[in-house]
Amino acid sequence: MAALQEDFTLSNGLQMPKIGFGTWQITDALEAYGATSAALAHGYRQIDTARVYGNEDSVGRALRDSGLPRSEVFVTSKLPAEIKDPDEALASFETTMAAIGLDYLDCYLIHAPWPWHDIGRDCSAGNKAVWEVLETIYRSGRAKSIGVSNFNAADLRVIIDGCSTRPMVNQIRYFIGHTQEDVVQFCRREGIQVTAYSPLATGKILRHPDLRAVAERYGKSVAQLCIRYVLQKDVGPLPKSTHEQRIRENADVDFEITSADMALLDGLSDTDKVR
Ligand code: A2P
Hints:
By secondary structure, this protein is α/β, with parallel strands linked by helices.
């Protein structure tokens, strides 16, 4: 599965596998361990976790038990969105590192520009303050790259204009019909790699009749079409599954969607609202 071997090059020169395994909503420890182990066994070389997912320990254990050299797997985790204080941010990073049991992360992200209970609140000062902590962690080598998640262009502008290191990654909610073009174009101009959580709209997109029709033309599943679409947009998909057969299927995306079909898919909206 060639797609698993392709990398993006981040703005600091670090290679990041284009496809990653998402672990959001895999809260059960055994399930998280099993799914991560299966992903690694099937060739995924990027794993995405977060402190708030509650599975950093299972992800770290699966990686250590896989026998793979640490340098072959790209691991991302995230600072909880609620933390906008520098001392708390540093303490949270240490908690993450103790849980995951690794010497370093490949990428460490601010999970969101605002607390989840207060989406949209202006936390510019707090984001700058915790970004400076991420810069210190980056300089220490304990995170090989740093970035953000769920940031829009204005949120990113605060960091770019106010701090010395630019975010290398912005992980956003991204799937066919929800492509956040303004954020993506901004990131492209500023050299920030976009990655996609929920590339299957957490499963809501999979029964969409138009997507079924297109997928059938390629002899592929809707999930494979969705993941391939994200790759062809130069965005890094992070599909999640707890089923080994689907984990394998989601990485089997060595086909090319034609430009006519890409245009058709670009024109869809509200794809996650299908019943
Ligand atoms: P499950 O974990 O039971 O396999 P997203 O990546 O957008 O967050 O979507 C994840 C959701 O999509 C989960 O509910 C997952 O279910 C489901 N899913 C993942 N891959 C597939 C697939 N290949 N076919 C059908 N459902 C899938």
